[in-house]
């Protein structure tokens, strides 16, 4: 034994190591393959030895050979052996080899699980590190499942080196084992604030990667990332975060508003180009998401464009490239700002760098106008001639066509010019885009009626010179053009000057060498031409011409009858018989022209590309139902649906296919020939017919001179497009002159009247009229087309599985699989589970205990006022924490969902946190307006303890989002919506300046509406809780009109406070100011007035109303008992200020405090809900609603919206709902519907309140 | 995400290939060849980005490369990576190599491809950037090499590299 070891180590001395192998390969340049194969033999010998050092050496060499392209998967087991060595040196070699050549289907991977687990928990950090690195390359779903828990533990390792690797690899684990995402996410989130910058960066990296694919699940992290963005100095992290924000902003426009300022600051301050560039990119994304209508953002666009211009002008080609890339993003939404840099972009077209030229080409798309289209295309045509590589030239070609055809040929003023451009493009050699040109020709000829005569003439010339296009087989891409030419000449043959000549051209024997589908079109269209000729000759006494034509047809068509292409053959033989019959009739002097042309009567109208798809399925027709029983599997496989009307389709894919399949086809052909030769029953094709099929110089042996010129060909008789540029210029000048003349005349006439009109100056877009009456036929659509623009995602995307809601609390079942002996203490409830998952650092525990404390306080709501105040402070503190960026830990997740008394669960907490955080977005963007309003607010709303500074974080929980939802939901009712939008906007501006601490936390309304509607796509009718409060008829008489609308809502924080939002709208043409709002207090409810003011003083409304403006103010009321609805009388006094006078006016109104307004939308989980019902302290009551005619989800949404409920659970036409009053009464509903009857069973611990709420619900539905 | 990292010389000879997604050996070789063709025909003073097209991934992917003396360093990345950031990363990589090999040249990469892999593993892991701080990278690489030396000292005494 000992001897063996010694022998092994001696052997080893003579083994080649990696360096020797490399040296050997370099020394055997001539017979490298042979040398390597001997080396592999040696390696195989080495692998058979027991000595691990020898094996490791062999594996190391294999890794090198793998790089050279040798398959080393046969050594997989040996690699595993080396991996499991206890020596780090060998282990590293093993893991490296594994990472290079293992993949999901490597079967020995199964064997590695335990080894990897052992390495992961090794005391040596580098063992762990090496294992993690290796695993990141070959992790499989099985490994991910088995090791997820181990890796998660490593995320809290003491060594940052391990932590960062563990964090990074989690991404791979998530990809392979999506179930691990939710359990691991809290810890991953913690790592965003790891003290080690490397770990932090890794966590940012992973979350960015996750969020890029499913951004909406990560919106709730925005505040955290925002904090990182403003605090981090690591450019890598910053870039990642900024990129992430770019992905998030489209989902949440408010986020964008918040981002603009810090990003702008970064743009101004950073010296790192990479960071600057990403900032600009994200600002662009923000601007896109905000869309237009934000006037104060034009500065940001300007800034971006300016910075990009600097990049583009830079001598560094990289910056130039990126600048153009970003520019193209702006182009989509703000084309105007890019257009001003046309000079620069055109300059880039001449750059020697192809990448840059391509980018510039992309931009050109947005640069064109009617004025400069011809000029730009002319320039591009020059490039086409100069372009050396075909790819770039093809790119140019497609771009030219794109540019010209964009938005329905919007910029083309002269279609003759366009046709000639297309014709010029046909001279391109070897382009793949023949079909593109062809479809353009067809499109233009069909849709622009005025151009048909010209187009037909051009096409006839093309057909006449077809040999120039088809002469070279390399050019076959371009012969597609003949397809279009033949069809146009045939269809619009009445415009042909010399149809007989064209007919002759179309019947040339050379045509038989064209691809089948083109021949078919040729044949069909000769018949059309034939009909035209007959018709034109009908009147002539001497019928020789028509007889000659008939004879020509009869002579030439047999060539096509022999065609190997079925379509051609069929058409040709049909037409041949037809013509023969016509000949017979002609000989009898029968007039046939009418009948023949009747064959092709009727006009073809263009059909919109998606028309077919948009035909609605008639009612009662089930397209999926079988008409007959399905045939057996094997049969149906053969019958692939054949596209009948999609001639275009196969052409698109053809060029690529032929390239790919050529070899294989040849192989198959060879095989088939072999088979046929050996098959006695196979009748061999006669050589002649085969010739026709392939590439024969024609049946009639006409010597064809192959012209292959590298110089651009001039097709005789074709006008050059350049000519048109000049002509167009002249035409426009003439037009302008005429116009000027006219204008002068007008001016002369009008001289006595007003001042002069604007001078026409430089020609503006609208001034250019098209050369001829262009009537672009719009594409036809089925009558009741459905708007359907479905964007189907790739179902195979691995990231789809990761679209997981991360805010939901963890369920019991969602635990990472742990090896059994570890999971000693079984966890009892999801709550504890969630906590356990969070357990890691102590912070979270502390936090949850803090939460608990707070909740307890929530419970004991009704206690003394003092305590209330304390609590309020606490809340404010928390608020400050969140916003001021001093909070150490992420909020949410740790709250306990099952605690009945404290329903705000983590979900709402996070959602409202986000809202909450986002809500101060306008603060930064509206700074200019802020001070004045703030001052007014401070003066007018004494309920605000301290005058809020502009930067003070203020909550504004739900309304804006509400409005957005309505925006998306209701496309109708625009007027109403607009009004509402306006209201909301105003609200946004104002709300932050007063009462801010009162309406924190009632962020459930939009939540509840969502609850009711998530699954349904049908739009909900817009809903509003605002009702008309009062309208002043008296003032109306004077031409003024003010009305108030109000919404009353309870306040979560304070058991006895109700907030009333009142919208004041000035409908008159005068200025309204000094508005004072006063309400007569009752015993039960009192308007909260500033300290020191008497019980009958009014509150000044903190704004003035210019004509037509509306604004909202909020007033707080203290309410003792909430079980009964009540009405309060009030008065609004104001001054109406006209230009010359001002009058005092008064408006009386009544505030109706419904019981509903004391309810607060509070989500509730079904288990908690069940517990609540079981408890038995609730009194029940029920109502029935008859004749409710609306979808169930609308019904639910209405209850949610108007009565502040949330849906707990919904099963078919039955739903349970929950809400809570501001004083902590639980209200549970069970809503059932059948036919038009809705029954609502309700339970509440306060029967009077319940009765009133039910009455109000009833009323809501009786109104609609 | 980084999809692949390739190093090859002016003649297209691969010096290091790291694919973060599995391809079989033939495809890998083809990718290297095509990448070389794309990259090598570009002039010295043009931009360092290339749209790889069908090569790897698709339109979302870009080739970002740098050319140092006889070697091309090519990273194939998707749109979540910052273009300029990756260029910096390549620079960091090369500087790290320079430190670790003391005036790195192509020969170092030829004979010590395993070491290059180890260095790279400290920078990029599973297609994601792990560390960009050169000092940190070198510290970790050195620590591991030290460990290896300690082991080699015990178990293998005679042979030395090169």
List the main descriptive attributes of the protein structure presented here.
heterodimer, A: 1264 residues, alpha+beta, six-stranded antiparallel sheet, five-stranded antiparallel sheet, 51 helices, extended, B: 162 residues, Beta-Lactamase, two-stranded antiparallel ribbon, 5 helices, disordered C terminus
Number of helices of chain B: 5
**Net shape of chain A:** extended
Main beta-sheet annotation of chain B: 5 strands, antiparallel
Say how many strands of chain A there are.
Answer: 15
Mean pLDDT across every amino acid position of chain A:
71
Structural class of chain A: alpha+beta
**What structural class do helix, strand and pairing data of chain B support?**
alpha+beta
Order of helices and strands of chain B: EEHEEEHHHEEH
The total tally of domains of chain B equals 1
CATH class category label of chain B: Alpha Beta
End-to-end distance of chain A, in Å?
96 Å
Largest interface: A-B, 69 and 59 residues
| Rg result of chain A | 40 Å
Strand order of the largest sheet of chain B: 2-1-5-4-3
Main sheet: strands, sense, barrel of chain A: 6 strands, antiparallel
Gyration radius over CA of chain B: 16 Å
């Amino acid at each position: 034994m000992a001897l063996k070891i010694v022998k092994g180590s001696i052997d080893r001395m003579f083994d080649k190591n990696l360096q020797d192998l490399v040296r050997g390969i370099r020394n055997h340049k001539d017979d490298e393959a042979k040398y390597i194969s001997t080396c592999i033999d040696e390696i195989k010998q080495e692998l058979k030895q027991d000595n691990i050092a020898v094996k490791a050496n062999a594996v190391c060499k294999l890794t090198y050979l793998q790089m050279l392209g040798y398959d080393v998967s046969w050594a997989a087991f040996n690699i595993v052996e080396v991996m499991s060595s206890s020596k780090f040196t060998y282990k590293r070699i093993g893991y490296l080899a594994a990472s290079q050549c293992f993949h999901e289907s490597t079967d020995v991977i199964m064997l590695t699980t335990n080894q990897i687990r052992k390495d992961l928990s090794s005391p040596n950090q580098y063992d762990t590190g090496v294992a993690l690195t290796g695993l990141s390359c070959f992790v499989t779903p099985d490994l991910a499942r088995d090791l997820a828990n181990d890796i998660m533990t490593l995320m809290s390792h003491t060594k940052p080196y391990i932590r960062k690797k563990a964090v990074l690899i989690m991404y791979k684990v998530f990809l392979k084992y999506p179930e691990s995402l939710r359990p691991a996410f809290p810890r991953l989130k913690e790592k965003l604030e790891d003290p080690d910058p490397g770990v932090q960066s890794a966590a940012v990296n992973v979350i960015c990667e996750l969020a890029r694919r499913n951004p909406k699940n990560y919106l709730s992290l925005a505040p955290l990332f925002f904090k990182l963005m403003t605090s981090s100095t690591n450019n890598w992290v910053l870039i990642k975060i900024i990129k992430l924000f770019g992905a998030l902003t489209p989902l949440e426009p408010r986020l964008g508003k918040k981002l603009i300022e810090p990003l702008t600051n970064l743009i101004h301050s950073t010296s790192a180009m990479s960071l600057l560039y990403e900032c600009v990119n994200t600002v662009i994304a923000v601007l896109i998401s905000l869309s237009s209508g934000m006037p104060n953002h034009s500065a940001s666009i300007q800034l971006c464009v300016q910075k990009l211009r600097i990049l583009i002008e830079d001598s560094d080609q990289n910056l130039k490239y990126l600048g153009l890339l970003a520019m193209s993003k702006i182009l989509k939404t703000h084309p105007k700002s890019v257009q001003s840099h046309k000079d620069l972009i055109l300059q880039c077209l001449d750059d020697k760098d192809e990448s840059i030229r391509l980018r510039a080409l992309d931009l050109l798309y947005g640069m064109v106008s009617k004025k400069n289209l011809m000029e730009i295309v002319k320039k591009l045509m020059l490039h086409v001639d100069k372009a050396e590589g075909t790819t770039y030239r093809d790119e140019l070609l497609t771009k030219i066509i794109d540019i010209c055809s964009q938005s329905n040929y919007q910029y083309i003023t002269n279609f003759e010019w366009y046709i000639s451009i297309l014709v010029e493009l046909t001279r391109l050699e070897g382009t793949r885009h023949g079909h593109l040109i062809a479809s353009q020709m067809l499109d233009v000829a069909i849709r622009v009626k005025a151009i048909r005569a010209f187009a037909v003439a051009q096409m006839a010339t093309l057909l006449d010179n077809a040999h120039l296009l088809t002469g070279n087989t390399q050019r076959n891409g371009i012969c597609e053009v003949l397809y279009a030419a033949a069809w146009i000449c045939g269809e619009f043959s009445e415009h042909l000057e010399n149809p007989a000549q064209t007919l002759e051209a179309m019947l040339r024997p050379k045509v038989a060498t064209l691809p089948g589908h083109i021949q078919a079109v040729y044949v069909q269209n000769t018949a059309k031409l034939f009909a035209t000729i007959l018709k034109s000759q009908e009147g002539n006494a001497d019928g020789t011409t028509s007889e000659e034509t008939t004879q020509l047809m009869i002579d030439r068509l047999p060539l096509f009858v022999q065609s190997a292409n079925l379509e051609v053959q069929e058409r040709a033989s049909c037409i041949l018989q037809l013509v023969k019959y016509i000949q017979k009739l002609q000989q009898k002097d029968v007039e046939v022209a009418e009948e023949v042309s009747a064959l092709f009567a009727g006009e073809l109208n263009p059909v919109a590309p998606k028309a077919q798809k948009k035909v609605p399925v008639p009612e009662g027709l089930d397209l999926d139902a079988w008409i007959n029983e399905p045939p057996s599997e094997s049969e149906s496989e053969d019958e692939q649906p054949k596209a009948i009307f999609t001639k275009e389709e196969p052409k698109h894919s053809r060029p690529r296919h032929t390239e790919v399949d050529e070899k294989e086809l040849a192989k198959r052909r060879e095989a088939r020939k072999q088979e046929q030769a050996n098959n006695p029953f196979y009748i061999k094709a006669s050589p002649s017919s085969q010739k026709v099929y392939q590439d024969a110089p024609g049946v009639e042996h006409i010597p064809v001179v192959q012209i292959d010129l590298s110089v651009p060909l001039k097709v005789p008789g074709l006008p050059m497009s350049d000519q048109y540029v000049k002509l167009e210029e002249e035409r426009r000048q003439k037009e302008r002159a005429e116009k000027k003349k006219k204008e002068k005349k007008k001016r002369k006439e009008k001289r006595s009247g007003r001042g002069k009109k604007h001078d026409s100056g430089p020609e503006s877009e609208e001034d250019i009229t098209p050369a001829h009456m262009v009537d672009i036929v719009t594409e036809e659509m089925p009558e009741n087309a459905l708007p359907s623009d479905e964007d189907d995602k790739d179902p195979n995307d691995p990231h789809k599985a990761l679209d997981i809601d991360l805010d939901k609390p963890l369920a019991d079942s969602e635990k990472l699989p742990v090896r059994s002996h570890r999971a000693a203490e079984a966890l009892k409830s999801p709550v504890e589970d969630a906590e356990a998952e969070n357990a890691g650092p102590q912070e979270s525990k502390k936090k949850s205990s803090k939460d608990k404390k707070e909740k307890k306080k929530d419970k004991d709501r009704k206690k003394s006022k003092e305590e209330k105040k304390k609590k309020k402070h606490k809340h404010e503190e928390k608020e400050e924490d969140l916003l001021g960026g001093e909070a150490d830990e992420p909020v949410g997740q740790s709250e306990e969902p099952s605690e009945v008394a404290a329903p705000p669960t983590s979900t709402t907490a996070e959602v409202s946190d986000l809202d909450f955080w986002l809500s101060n977005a306008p603060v930064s963007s509206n700074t200019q307006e802020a001070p004045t309003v703030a001052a007014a607010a401070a003066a007018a709303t004494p309920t605000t303890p301290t005058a809020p500074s502009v930067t003070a974080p203020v909550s504004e929980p739900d309304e804006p989002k509400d409005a957005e939802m309505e925006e998306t939901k209701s496309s109708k009712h625009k007027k109403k919506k607009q009004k509402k939008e306006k209201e909301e906007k105003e609200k946004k501006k104002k709300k932050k300046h007063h009462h801010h601490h009162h309406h924190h936390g009632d962020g459930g309304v939009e939540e509840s509406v969502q609850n009711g509607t998530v699954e349904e796509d049908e739009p909900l009718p817009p809903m509003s809780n605002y009702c008309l409060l009062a309208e002043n008829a008296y003032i109306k008489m004077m031409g003024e009109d003010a009305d108030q609308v109000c919404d009353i809502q309870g306040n979560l924080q304070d058991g006895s406070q109700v907030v009333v939002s009142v919208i004041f709208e000035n409908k008159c043409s005068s200025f309204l100011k000094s508005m004072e709002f006063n309400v007569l207090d009752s015993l039960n409810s009192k308007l909260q007035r500033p300290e020191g003011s008497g019980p009958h003083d009014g509150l000044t409304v903190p704004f003035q109303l210019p004509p037509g403006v509306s604004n909202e103010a909020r007033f707080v009321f203290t309410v003792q008992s909430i079980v009964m609805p009540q009405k309060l009388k009030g008065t609004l006094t104001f001054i109406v200020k006209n230009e010359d006078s001002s009058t005092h006016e008064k408006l009386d109104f009544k505030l109706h405090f419904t019981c509903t307004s004391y309810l607060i939308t509070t989500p509730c989980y079904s288990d908690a809900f069940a517990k609540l019902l079981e408890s038995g302290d609730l009194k029940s009551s029920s109502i029935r609603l008859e004749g409710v005619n609306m979808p169930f989800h609308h019904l639910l949404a209405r209850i949610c919206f108007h009565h502040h409920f949330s849906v707990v659970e919904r099963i078919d036409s039955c739903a349970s709902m929950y809400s809570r009053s501001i004083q902590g009464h639980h209200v549970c509903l069970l809503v059932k519907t059948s036919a038009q009857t809705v029954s609502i069973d309700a339970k509440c611990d306060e029967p009077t309140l319940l009765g009133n709420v039910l009455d109000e619900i009833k009323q809501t539905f009786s109104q609609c | 995400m980084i999809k692949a990292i390739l190093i090859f010389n002016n003649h297209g000879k691969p010096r290091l290939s790291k694919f973060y997604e599995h391809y079989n050996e033939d495809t890998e070789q083809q990718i290297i060849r095509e990448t070389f063709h794309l990259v090598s025909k570009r002039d010295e003073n043009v931009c360092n980005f290339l749209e790889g097209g069908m090569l790897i991934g698709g339109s979302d992917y870009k080739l970002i490369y740098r050319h140092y003396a006889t070697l091309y360093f090519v990273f194939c990345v998707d749109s979540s990576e910052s273009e300029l950031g990756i260029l910096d990363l390549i620079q960091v990589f090369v500087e790290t190599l320079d430190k670790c090999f003391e005036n790195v040249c192509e020969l170092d990469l030829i004979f010590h491809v395993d070491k290059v892999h180890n260095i790279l593993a400290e920078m990029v892991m599973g297609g994601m950037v792990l560390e960009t701080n050169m000092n940190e990278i070198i510290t970790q690489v050195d620590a591991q090499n030290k460990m290896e030396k300690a082991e080699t000292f015990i178990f293998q005494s005679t042979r030395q590299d090169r």
